[in-house]
User: Fold these one by one.
Assistant:
Number 1:
Amino acid sequence: MTADNPSLRPWRDIERRKSRQIMVGDVPVGGDAPITVQTMTNTLTSDPKATIDQIRRCEEAGVDIIRVSCPDVESTAALKQIVRASRVPIVADIHFHYKRGIEAAEAGAACLRINPGNIGSAARVKEVVDAAKANGCAIRIGVNAGSLEKDLLEKYGEPCPEALVESALDHIKILQDHDFHEFKVAVKASDVFLAVAAYSQLADAVDCPLHLGITEAGGLIGGTVKSSIGMGNLLWAGIGDTIRVSLSAEPEEEVRVGYEMLKALGLRTRGVRVVSCPSCARQGFDVIRTVQTLEERLQHIRTPLSLSVLGCVVNGPGEARETDIGITGGGAGKHMVYLSGVTDHHVSDGDMVDHIVKLVEAKAAEIEAATEQVEAAE
């Protein structure tokens, strides 16, 4: 009954778009690899300690790949220390200066975020591509509706799906002309409809991995909603090999939202999936505060499992049957605890949160031990 069991319900199946696979450091992207979750640091890259501290928090949240901006020599000079300290591959964000791309590749970046058509002459492009090849560096082409090339804006009159796709194809051709194929592509826009249409068209035109994002999505709540609508639409259609939720929030929050998005679609499993009611006058305990506390205290759990927290017996028993651990509000401060969908015992108000945390930790340990036994037997 754990959350990572494969579904036997065909109406829940998502058939992913077939893409070729590349490597970003030691992380496979595309093909049949899991959809990776990315974020980006917002510290000064030239301050390696602050940047590494932020990367650590993102690693704890489960980030697979992390991007750092390299706008100047001081940043690429610090990159070697950052790469050495990071447990996940580093993408160096390069915009216009080709030398920063070369320096980042030589400093150990696993990937360069760069648009080859924006960094100058063919000779400069060749230097960056040669540096990427020499250092085993992938490239991420990052087309953005807010910074489309002038000729495309003149041709189409405004940012549109066709303009984003044409820009992406132009940049792809430059890399292919240099016999470079270790690349992934993004065609981001802040407008959900524009982004979804552009990604859908690009998915039909190329076989490379696609990096999804709704750029400049907004704050934690608004940006989460906007990203979930746009990226969720694409992921549900099987499009997307790696994602970044762009929020005006701390990077680790982007990681958590990304995982929740993938968990909701059954595409990744990590940590506790909480099923909870919005609460009403029937609730036997403070559902909202209880869920907030449990989510905070269970962030350290990485093993996939499910927990239902329901305030009363109207929907509680039904939801609890579908989760590893469940609790349903009852009268007189006594609440029913379900284990593997079966009623097991009661717990009182004062002990409830600590009790649930212990049950989840014990269940996670049990699942981990069983997994280790299976792996040992193989």
Number 2:
Amino acid sequence: MDLFLLTFAALFSVINPLGSVPIFLGLTQDDSKESKNKTALWAAINVCIILIISFFIGEYVLKFFGISIDVLRIAGGIIICTSGFGLLSGTFSKKRGVSKKVTDDAQHRSDIALTPLAIPMMAGPGSMSLLIAMYQDYPEYSDKAIIVGAILILSLSVFLILRSANYLSKLLGASGIVAISRIIGFLVLAIGVQYIVNSLVAIFKI
């Protein structure tokens, strides 16, 4: 249960589906309720697939390019810190690579569930590097099953949050979403710093 909660909390903080609510509403403003629900579903499915592939295949990609896990943790920590700082400073979408050009292009396409909603907004480099590191940190099959379970529940949470985007927007308001994003941003920043510190300690011990 501890591993499940750790994985879910870390991924939820990095992915931050609540922070994606305003962008989701903007991209689907002219869609019907059924179309919005379908987009939310496919965005969650895409996030799930991307995270699971990253979890199981990422290690072999690192070996192919000769990248050590500690270097990956430092790189991932920097990306996570950048995302966290973006949430704190209110420049989250810019930090995720969702420029105005990408947003405008997405508004003219029927399928936005993969890009930019799943990639790069939610399943970005930060969450990918986090899972690749966890694959090596937890070698037991039972631990890997728990992590996959956390990914599945997280994807369900993404679907429910995006599906309830209109309600959440009315309930929390713009200021409420910003406040929650700032809190999550602080947690994300702390996670990124912890990753960098742990990696530096491991490198200098060697």
Number 3:
Amino acid sequence: MKIVLASNNQGKLAELQAMFHPLGVELVPQGALMDGEAPEPYGTFLENALSKARFASERTGLPAIADDAGLCVAAFGGLPGVDTAYYCMQFGYEKSDANNVRALIEQMSGVTDRRAAMVSTLVAVRHPKDPEPLVAVGRVAALIAQQPMGEGGFGFDPVLLIPELGMTFAQMTPEVKHAHSHRGRSSRLMMELVRENWLAGSAAVRAAAKD
């Protein structure tokens, strides 16, 4: 089964391809099939993910999966949330992962409440007007580290310290990160939803056709 991933983020693509490989699902980045980006005017991960999934499906004619994820910092009232990717720009920096990390460390200076959460919301649609989209949410609690630690991952991984493991996402192997990350959790839930709602039905139809 071929599904378009409504993202051109190579980090997301690599993680999700690894997750969905056992299902025999081929995830194709939308940039390989279409131009343009979906509008993301909403304030929640769910609404933006649904917008991206519908847009990609409409443009490609394929089922689509979209992810909207972000960092929710307790001391900032849950922000930056849906604006996570552009966090540093409000402080005059050019958009980049490194600048996002730099800006966060600067803004957290002197803040004692270091609690945060990374949230990933995955939405899958069979077609643009699918009335029953699949929704999977993964959330992981973290602490904002005082300084970056580790060389792996992307985004805010170097400063997302997972207390029970005593390391940041950037210090983890890909396998450990998949097991504990927000996207790992949402992906596993989505895998089960796709298997139960999309693939199981197809298998039953094929089996019936052989009888």
